[in-house]
User: Which sequence fits this backbone?
């Protein structure tokens, strides 16, 4: 029996190592390409190793990409804050409230998450054009929220349902209003889950390409769209593109590593309630 378990552990470890190789190799290639000389980055067949060069980074920092990176920060922070401000209380109301149509609303929130964004992008574009929200930060934030807010409400409702209602009722008996009980009792207990949702919102906003490609402009293009500027009609600047990709991937990796414990705990807690 122990021999069988040892064999399964070895096989599982080997499969995990193979999977990690497939995951790490693209990121390692981006890292190597970002510090290659331009001639080595575009070499055919590709050269794995090259003398270290910062030419790609100099080109990246001297071009329009830093401005698009600032746009990504503004849009990501604005979307995350606005979505949490609206979605967290809405999730609490959905978890604790008992009103007509509650299950229908829950099904609609789940259904909206299953629909591909391409279905809504044309009406959204026409609607935003009438409101003059094209090529504005507000328009992009509202467009991001249209997809992320149902997810936020649904996830937060699950986290708030995990908080024992008796604790909240005890606070109400002691004289606390519903708002004070929510802020001082329920929200701190559900904070790991709320932070998990915030991290997921930030990652989704930072990585979004399709919506800003259609709704943004020269002044509001995020870094995901600005990355395309290094693809020309005849040539591709692989070094600058790799350096730009590295600046997009690195914040996501750092944020995930920093919040991984809370993310695992929050996601597992949400899975209990379904």
Assistant:
């Amino acid at each position: 029996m122990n021999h069988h378990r040892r064999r399964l552990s070895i096989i599982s470890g080997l499969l995990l190592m193979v999977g990690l190789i497939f995951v790490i190799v693209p990121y390692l290639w981006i890292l190597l390409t970002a510090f290659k000389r331009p001639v080595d980055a575009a070499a055919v067949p590709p050269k794995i190793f090259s003398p270290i060069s910062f030419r790609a980074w100099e080109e990246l920092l001297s071009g329009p990409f830093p401005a698009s990176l600032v746009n990504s920060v503004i849009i990501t922070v604005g979307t995350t804050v606005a979505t949490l401000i609206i979605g967290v209380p809405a999730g609490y109301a959905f978890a604790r409230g008992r009103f007509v149509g509650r299950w229908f609303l829950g099904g609609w929130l789940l259904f909206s998450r299953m629909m591909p964004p391409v279905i809504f992008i044309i009406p959204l574009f026409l609607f935003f054009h009438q409101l003059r929200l094209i090529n504005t930060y507000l328009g992009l934030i509202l467009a991001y929220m249209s997809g992320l807010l149902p997810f936020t409400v649904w996830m937060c409702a699950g986290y708030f349902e995990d908080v024992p209602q008796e604790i909240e009722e005890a606070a109400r008996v002691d004289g606390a209003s519903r708002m004070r009980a929510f802020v001082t009792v329920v929200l701190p207990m559900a904070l790991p889950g709320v932070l998990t949702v915030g991290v997921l919102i930030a990652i989704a906003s930072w990585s979004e390409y399709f919506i800003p490609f259609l709704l943004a402009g020269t002044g509001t293009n995020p870094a995901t769209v600005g990355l395309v500027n290094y693809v020309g009609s005849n040539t591709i600047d692989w070094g600058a593109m790799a350096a730009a990709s590295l600046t997009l991937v690195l914040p996501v990796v750092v944020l995930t590593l920093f919040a991984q414990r809370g993310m695992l705990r929050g996601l597992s807690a949400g899975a209990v309630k379904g």
